[in-house]
Write a structure and sequence with these properties.
The chain is mainly beta and 199 residues long. It has helices at 106-118, 180-193, and strands at residues 2-9, 24-26, 33-35, 55-61, 66-72, 74-75, 78-84, 93-94, 97-99, 122-131, 142-151, 162-169, 197-198.
């Protein structure tokens, strides 16, 4: 994620360049830190206004965790699972889910992932938990919102990066990818007790 930070106003006598959007560099005229000259990008709803005249603007980039969603959809004594087509955990069963795209809500991402991976139309009915940590995903740190799902529980049809999709008996839902064993166990307890955030 990029975040714009407006620093102290520039002083023409200091050798700082006029306001332009870019990253910090060095003014060749005076060797002072300044905003590297860069043509301002097109304005958009997610962008802040340019700095005041004579100020220095810098783009600071942070290393943030990725945001993903997983769905726990229970039908009787079965849970909806997919078999992963790709690494990591290729060939292992997992809860349906995936990464949130740039311009969608987490709820929309969950409905989309269910539809893409299983062919079913479901909707979130509550939040069962939020899981985070640097070691949950071997690719990069990931923060996951886990939803309780509801909808028309028909016959799944695998798609996207799922090699298979099926209703699996809860007694056989073991050895799942990532930390999904823990997520499923805690989600079942919360569903039984009703201790989760309902929509």
């Amino acid at each position: 994620m990029a975040r714009d930070v407006v620093t102290t106003p520039g002083d023409p006598a200091s050798g700082e360049l006029p306001t332009r959007r870019g990253v910090f560099g060095v003014d060749p005229r005076g060797g002072r830190p300044c905003a590297a000259a860069a043509a301002p990008p097109p304005r958009g709803p997610a962008q802040e206004p340019y700095g005041a005249r004579g100020s220095v603007v810098a783009v600071v980039r942070y290393r943030n965790p990725a945001v993903s969603v997983d769905g726990v959809w229970i039908r009787g004594n079965s849970v909806l699972l997919v078999r992963r087509r790709r690494a990591p955990f290729r060939g292992r069963l997992a809860l349906p889910g995936g990464f949130v795209e740039y311009e969608e809500t987490v709820e929309a991402a969950m409905a989309r992932e269910i539809r893409e991976e299983t062919g079913l139309k479901g909707r979130p009915r509550g939040i069962l938990g939020v899981y985070s940590g640097p070691d949950r995903d071997p690719r990069h740190p990931t923060t996951t919102i886990v939803f309780a799902m509801t909808g028309r529980a028909g016959r799944p049809r695998a798609g996207d990066d799922a090699a298979d999709a099926r209703w699996v008996p809860l007694s056989a839902a073991r050895g799942l990818a990532f930390d999904h064993d823990l997520i499923l166990a805690e989600s079942l307890r919360r569903l039984r007790t009703g201790r989760f955030v309902r929509f």
